[in-house]
Each structure stands twice: as structure tokens, then as C-alpha cells.
Amino acid sequence: MHKKLDEFLHIPKILRDKYQLDESFNLFKVLRGSSDEVRLHSRFLAELLDPQGSHGLGPEYLIHFVGEVLRLDGFDCESAFVLKEWNDIDILIRNKNGQAIILENKIYAHDQENQLHRYYQIVNDLSYEDKNIHIVYLTLDGKKASNQSLNGIPDEILSESYTDISYKFDISKWLKLCRKEAVEKPELRESITQYLNLVSELTHTNQSASFMKELESWFEKELINGRPVGMLDALLIAKEKYHAKRIEVFREAIFERISGLSFNQNESTVTLSDCEDFVAKNDSFDIWVYPIAGEERLQVGFINNHGACYFSVWCSQKGDKTIYDAARNAINTSNFSSYNKSNQWSAGWKYLSDPIVLSASTDENLQKLSDNNYLNSLADTVAQELKAIVLALNKDSMLKSLF
């Protein structure tokens, strides 16, 4: 079996080695994880879309986006302004004529319950008419948002004002138009070029034309000669299973290091099956613990979602503002003042310094996850942060007095 598999993959490997393009320096990959939805992709796209953006080209990029990508007539780009991460909406474009575009950006993250409906409701509550609210769902390949995310949005909005677009085709095409407009701005042109290269890598369109042509020819010959090309499907399944097992090794390594803490098993990733769902369905990877044993109103977690790993101190501001404020104060007066104030559901959060995206089945990620030394080092980092923030919260006398 191994011999047949080696023979089957021999030609693709030779072709890849022959035509593979050298990896060039990419500032976006150096500074941020390549699939970081919030800190990289949404912010860069929002900057280009913003008529007041630092690109200095006014509404030109937004006009191209609205006209060429969304094919939306009558949207006033001249008076438009762009909000980034406002009320959890990745990008919100509004104008003085009462029109709005909600852009939800998904790289690897899964949809949340009623997510797009919630965003629609937020904008609708600002007195925007249904006919003037446009919802755009952006993914790598242009897939439609899930029913659980869309549920509750009026049918007329979904039929007339909902659009799903892709990085692979729509954003790539738009970025090339943007690059043409930047012909006299070399720094901007180079930034767009590097970002385009990153998009090509994420969408697997960065292979040379010669490589793809010969690979297609090889595939055709294998098919005509009756070779089992269906083996490629089996390889993808094996890749997912291997990925899930490495995530399970990582999870177990963290659990071993924080065994003295009080776990929230119901909300944590605790089994190999959970890890398989995380990889196959872009589900969330979570480890949650209670700083005050058994007290569910305050929790500390390590999460991989929305293309990034981060730590969070969960506490509902609406559920118990007193605990929320005390937790926030405990964070500010400890060594964790670098934690950001997030929203009404989190008293603080901080990104993991390592840019790895655990859910991405890229060669680079899988090679990292295959290295036990790397995994153990990463587990050490996660465990130390969780234990330290739990200790800081547990030692705060004002916070403890509330339980």
C-alpha cells in the first residue's frame, strides 16, 4: 500500500519541485498570522474601502467594490464612512443617505448563532430602512452563510440585499483594480501586491501556471489509465484525521499542565471527537476554567476562533455588572493590564503571541503541530497564562467577596 501511494504521488512531487515558486518576503505574514480575520484582513480591507483611508484616493476603491464586486446601484460612496469592529461587526459602511453595508469576514471561523441577524438588527435599530441595508458575507471560496446565522432576517432582505462573495475571485479581482489605481503610489501598490500574494496562498491559487497545466495533464493520464485517483479524497480524510489527533495531543498537554484548576467541561474541547469537529467544521477550540471553583458567572478561557488564538476573562456585563466591574478592576490592577476590554461578555482579552491558526490544515501549520517540542512549548505558554490570570482573579479580595 505504501509503495502504491509513493508511486501515485511521485509525479506531483517532481512537478511541484520543478515549478514551485520561491516564497518571497511578505510583511503581512511577518506581522500577523496569515488567516487572522480581525487584526489583519478586516482592518486592511476596511482601510482600502474607507474614502478617508490613508491610501489618499478618496472613494475610488469603495466605488470599485460597490460596483464591480457587489454590483449595487445607487449606493452613495461619496459621503460614506467605514467603521471597523463596531458592535462586533467586522466592517460597517454607512453614508449620509441612510444606506449601510454590513460585511462579515470569515477565513476559517464558523458562524455564530443568529450572527448576521444580530448585526442586521443592530443596524435596523439605527432607523435604517430594510431596503437600504445590504449584507455581505465574505469567505475564502464564496460559500453562503449558514441558516443558523441568517435565521430571523426578513426574506426580502435575503432575496434582494444579501450577497456572498469570495477572496478567491471577488476580492482578488477587486484588489487588482485597486493596484492599478495605485500606479503612482509605490508603497500602496506594493502593500496591495503583498496582500494579493497572501490571498493567493490562502485560496491555493498561488501555484504557477506551468505546474497546474502539467498537473492537470498527469491527472488526466492517471484517470485514462484506470489509476485510483479517488485516493486523493482518502488522502484529504487522512490529513484531517491526523490534524485532529495533533490538536488532541495539544489539548491533553494543556490539560496536564493545568490539572489543579477547576474545569468547565461542558464548554471545553475535551475529546478527540471535539477535535475532529474543530478541524472538519471549523468549530471553536475552547478550554475554560473557573477562577472561583464551580462559580459559572466568571470564567477564564483559551480560545481559537475567528482565525486567531486568544485568552478571555468571560463575565456577562448584563448578567452581573458588579462582578464584571470587579473583574475588570482586578485585571487593571494586576500584571494583566495589557488585556483589552472587549465587550459586554468579556472583562478582558489578549491574543496569543504565537500567530498559529490551529484550525488551518496548511503544510506550515501541520509541520508545526507535528513537532512535539513546539507543541509542548505552546502548551506551556497557554497553561502559564491561564494559571496566572486565575491566580490574579482569585487573590482579589473585592472580587472574591462577591461570591
From TrEMBL:
Superkingdom in the source lineage: Bacteria
Protein name, as recorded: PD-(D/E)XK nuclease superfamily protein
Organism: Marinomonas balearica
